[in-house]
Amino acid sequence: MRSPLREISRMPLTRTLLAVLTFGSALGAQRRPPLDSASINGIAKLLMLEDVRRFDEPELARLLESKYPEVRRRAMLSVARIRDPRGVALLRAHPLDSDTTLAATTVFGVGQLRDTLTIAWFDSLLSSPRTAPAVAVEAACALGKIKTAAARDVLARYLSKAVSSPNTNATIGEALLSIGRSTARGDVAPIVKWTTSPDEELRWRATWALFRPRDPAAVADLLRLSADPSGLVRSWAIRGLGKPQADSASIADRAEAKLLAAVSDADRRVRSEAVRTLGTYADFSAIAALVGALGSSDTWISVPAAEGLGRARVASTVPALVSATNASKPCALRITAVRQLLPFAINDARAAAAAVARDTVPYCQNAGAQIVRDTIPGGRGGGGGAGRGRAAPTLVERPMAEYRAIVEKWIVPAYEGKPLPRARWETPKGTIEIELYSGDAPLAMDALERIHAAGTIVGTEFSRVVSDFVDQQATIHDAAVQRDEVNRHRLTRGNLAWASAGLDTGRPGYTLNHTPQPHNEGDFTSLGRVVSGQDVVDRIDLGDRILSARLIR
Q: pTM score, two decimals?
């Protein structure tokens, strides 16, 4: 029989990361006894405390001492999700468990509480060669949630000393994402070190870490990386060549030349990001390239071109933007062009909006009509769409029998290693199938099931589509404010979540990622991942709807 650890050592980094995060629980599912009635009751109690965000210290402490490892693990998650500062002491009251999965969950939980006093502890875990890879990964991730200069210093020191190996690559990759999340700038050398790695996964993470802080000190390296063989690396590098940073680095001419060439790159992601970044330039060459991109049949190209022309606010581009509102153009381009015209060509925008209000796509009809109302003197203004403002959480404790039923329906099968449920959505662009993390986000899973059973997700529009970033649905009718269940699944490409203005403020519609979103780590619930139809996700257009939806158990 092959050794699971040996198999993990042979995997590329993306699969290694997934294996490190799930190996302990997968192995445990083969050995663990069934959850008995007492353990199910304990998990149901934890679910209730999470749901109402109640820090019941005696009860949490009791469950953290449970003889059942799964109860202890879920108690750690509950402390993290309740987000009471007293949870740090509760989680750190004992040494890390010898079970790697439990130890990693403790570190994850402390990281979610974002206490700057824990930086030294994370540093000790990250720097010790005896720390298990899964625990080290969570320590690196936790430092990225704290984001301070002190946390960045720890990550920089680790990256400077780390040596690539099957046992360290997952931690290095996570540390690169975390250092990119820092609110403080610092020496970029510890990041640049990894931009020449033969591993594409490490290179794109290093490139992201250089791009994210918008530090002029990184622009020269990003310019070099914009010629990387990997389209993924190039797409992140291109994002960092904006004019403000390139000017500060005194290489704006070279950066713009690279962007102009990248508009014709073979990779769609690179083309989209080149057009978007050209929007930060306003000279003749950039404007001409944006006008040319406006004619693309691909909205990943034409929409950011319209946005760039809107930022430039050059009178000579008005005819091109007006032409982009023509009835033959896609809904997303039409409404984007109208909105870009509003600040400096309001009469043209108003006339175009009236035409867009007759579009065949309901989203465009409504958006065009709203713009007309907003721009007519004496019109109703405001009004219109459903916002995503902060909703006050409704803390309503359900009957304990309901929490127990959720545990038995979603948590127990996942614990036993049974196949995860899936959602299958039909869209105008094709079928999307999503594997659901039912055991890791059971409250969200319960809400998703209710939404599917009621059929209210059918007809829901994708009301926000940002190329090379995210597809976001409009708020689903009667969807309640959702309690977040942040877990150890990362916000990867194809991740299923929902929009919010902060933890515990979001109501589904759901979101699907085009790209990883490390900058949002710890702030959104990962509810699932696309297992079939990611190409469909990448082709979704503004106003596309869910035509049918069902859960597969």
A: 0.92
Reading the block at residue 245, the tokens are 């940073």
Q: What angle do CA 57, 61, 62 make, to 5 degrees?
A: 120
pLDDT tens for 87-122 read 999 999 999 999 999 999 999 999 999 999 999 999
Longest dimension (CA), the chain: 77
CA pair distance 22, 29, nearest whole angstrom: 11
Sign of CA dihedral 497, 498, 501, 507: negative
**Rounded to whole angstroms, how far apart are CA atoms 75 and 72?**
5
Torsion of CA 420, 423, 424, 426, to 10 degrees: -160
Neighbours of 381 (CB within 10 A): 12
Domain definitions of the chain by residue range? 32-113, 214-281, 286-294+304-381, 419-552
pLDDT tens, position by position, 27-84: 444 567 889 999 999 999 999 999 999 999 999 999 999 999 999 999 999 999 999 9
Task: Give the span between the Cα atoms of 507 and 530, in whole angstroms.
Answer: 20
Q: Is 287 helix (H, G, I), strand (E, B) or coil?
A: helix
Written out in words, the top-level CATH class of the domain with range 214-281 is mainly alpha
Rg, C-alpha atoms of the chain: 25
Length of the chain: 553
The total of other beta-carbon atoms located within 10 Å of residue 93's CB is 10
Q: Which of 469, 229, 140 is nearest to 237 (CA)?
A: 229
Q: Phi/psi zone of residue 399: left (φ > 0), alpha (ψ -120 to 50 degrees), beta?
A: beta
Instruction: Give the phi and the psi of residue 328 in degrees, each rounded to 5.
Output: -80, -10
Query: What is the DSSP track for 86-123?
Result: THHHHHTSSPPPSSHHHHHHHHHHHHHHT-GGGHHHHH
- Between CA 108 and CA 86 the distance in angstroms is 16
| 203-215 burial: b if 16+ Cβ within 10 Å, else e | bbbbbbbbbbbeb
Pick the CATH number of 419-552 from 2.40.30.170, 2.60.40.1240, 2.40.100.10, 3.30.420.40: 2.40.100.10
Enter the tokens of residue 153.
């210093």
Cβ atoms of 287 and 311 closer than 8 Å: no
